[in-house]
Amino acid sequence: MALKLVSMSFQSQEVPCFGLPAMASFGSPRFFMTSTVPSANMKVENLRKKFMPHLKVQDQITHSMPPQKIEIFKSLDNWVENNILIHLKPVEKSWEPQDFLPDPTSDGFNEQVEELRERAKEIPDDYFVVLVGDMITEEALPTYQTMLNTLDGVRDETGASPTPWAIWTRAWTAEENRHGDLLNKYLYLSGRVDMRQIEKTIQYLIGSGMDMKAENNPYLAYIYTSFQERATFISHKNTAKIAKGHENIELARLCGFIAADEKRHETAYTKIVEKLFEIDPDETARAFADMMRKNITMPAQFMYDGQDENLFNHFSTVAQRLGVYTTKDYTDILEFLVDQWKVKELTGLSAGGRKAQEFVCQLPQRLRKLEVRAQLRAKEAPNVKFSWIYDRKLKL
Ligand SMILES: [Fe+2]
Ligand SMILES: [Fe+2]
Questions:
Q1: How far does residue 35's CA lie from ligand 2's centre (Å)?
Q2: Beta carbons of 139 and 331 less than 8 angstroms apart
Q3: How far is the CA of 254 from the centre of ligand 2 (A)?
Q4: How far apart are CA 81 and CA 196, in angstroms?
Q5: Which of 217, 268, 261, 237 is nearest to 332 (CA)?
Q6: Partner of 27 at 20 to 30 A CA spacing, among 250, 323, 365, 390?
Q7: Residue 109 near residue 102, CB atoms below 8 Å
């Protein structure tokens, strides 16, 4: 049964350039339960002020997947073992952050750090703001592992569960952990950014969590993760490209290696959804449409540094201007997934399934029109200061 619970959401009414405007809600009928106890609400309000002052309480839906569907995920155990775990890299063959950083035990450590800092001086502030935002997003990894472990039928029930789904989630987390770690250490050594402000932002972000609107439902969640892994692949690939343009080959290399991980993860998650389309096309088509109607919001949407209540929007506007991640990318990803999952070719759907199919297939065309507006908005944007670069101002 689906429950509607108290949740936190971003206070700003601005539309972030990463997420596109919300449309009418969609999906099968659900049952809601809303908290009505005033003292409980006051308690939440007080906690909110202390730990997540930029958030307000809204509604959230939980457990929307019919219980009988859990069996589908259990029946896929062998398939996950043979088809998904192969997309993980054995630890012994993985790169580690230390492979890209000066070795603190070597005699040449100080010189290597000095060289890294000299090369970092050639890169403009706006690039660093985007790299910091990307790093903070990666550093909120505890939230993402938590999210995956809210999912009915696939969660890691014990923290060391031997099911292939749980093995995937833990090993995926372990691979992802290297991303934030590497970017964090690089940024620390670069001497270009205010690490304390960045660390505060990470603390706030993990405290705030995220609202991916997956409703404990793996159909919805794996569509979200497919989208997100491709989004992070594009984003890290572009930070690599720009670093190369500034002739910073070491930075380009490390961003490129992170992008390659994201690509592997994208392959795994899109394969899961492909399988769901194969065995349960109706539910999967409706889940795809549902997620797209709700928007794929970025995992770091609740970003806050203790000062700027629109920090995420400001960061994403700079990313849009630099071409690291844009509204065009959002639509391109959607188009890619529609093709990848052969949504146009699906047959034998129910009326609801056909409606969902039609919606996702037509959506890219509608979103293209909004891209122009987002670009114009980026051109008109004012100067904004970022605490991550010692309150220096950037044109958005
Ligand atoms: Fe990552
Ligand atoms: Fe990833």
A1: 34
A2: no
A3: 15
A4: 42
A5: 237
A6: 365
A7: yes
| Phi/psi of residue 16, nearest 5 degrees | -65, 150
Can 96 be counted among the known catalytic residues? Answer: no
Distance CA 63, CA 50 (A): 29
Give CA–CA dist 334/277, Å, rounded. Answer: 16
Residue with tokens 């003292």: 39
Rounded-to-integer distance, Cα 321 and Cα 299, Å:
20
Q: Give the pLDDT confidence of 355-382 residue by residue, as tens digits.
A: 999 999 999 999 998 888 777 776 777 8
Nearest ligand (C-alpha, residue 172)? 2
**pTM score of the predicted model:** 0.89
Domains along the sequence of the chain with CATH: 71-395 (1.10.620.20)
The CA dihedral of 216, 27, 334, 372, to the nearest 10 degrees, is -120
Contacts of 109 (CB under 8 A, 6+ apart): 102, 103
